[in-house]
Design goal:
Shape: elongated
CATH topology of the largest domain: Elongation Factor Tu (Ef-tu), domain 3
Helix content: 25-40%
Number of strands: 8
CATH class of the largest domain: Mainly Beta
Strand content: 25-35%
CATH superfamily of the largest domain: Aminomethyltransferase beta-barrel domains
Number of domains: 2
Largest sheet: 6 strands, antiparallel, barrel
CATH architecture of the largest domain: Beta Barrel
Radius of gyration: 16 Å
Strand order of the largest sheet: 3-6-5-4-7-8
Order of helices and strands: EEHHEEEEEE
């Protein structure tokens, strides 16, 4: 069962992030994205600390949750690799016929021609 997120801590320093601070707001946004994508059991206070610390010290997320349009009616598998010009750029988190959610590297352009399981896909 998930622990309540009543405070956010930096996992490297142990410092409590204060509401209103830039780091707190970015951490809260990241936790909310994970909750929306994977449900409340995906985030516990301890598990939320590592992404928060990475975001704090690196200054930006490497991936974002994006909606894809996938050709064909077959549903892509969970964790299927998403490629751009043969290079892995993301992974599918969930899908329905024709659409999928995926964590995709932020440098992938909106107009990119992606591929998942041998089928064309594009950002929606």
């Amino acid at each position: 069962m998930a622990e309540p997120l009543d405070e956010l801590r930096d996992s490297l320093t142990g410092e409590v992030l204060v509401e209103g601070d830039r780091e707190y707001e970015r951490a809260r946004q990241l936790v909310n994205e994970i909750l929306q994508a994977e449900g409340p059991e995906a985030v516990t206070l301890r598990r939320a600390q590592d992404p928060v610390a990475r975001l704090h010290y690196r200054g930006h997320p490497n991936r974002g949750l994006r909606v894809l349009e996938v050709e064909g009616e077959e549903i892509p598998a969970y964790d299927a690799e998403l490629t751009l010009d043969g290079k892995a750029v993301g992974r599918i988190t969930s899908a329905v016929p024709g659409y999928a959610l995926a964590y995709i590297r932020v440098e992938v352009p909106d107009a990119a021609q992606l591929e998942v399981e041998g089928r064309p896909a594009r950002l929606h």
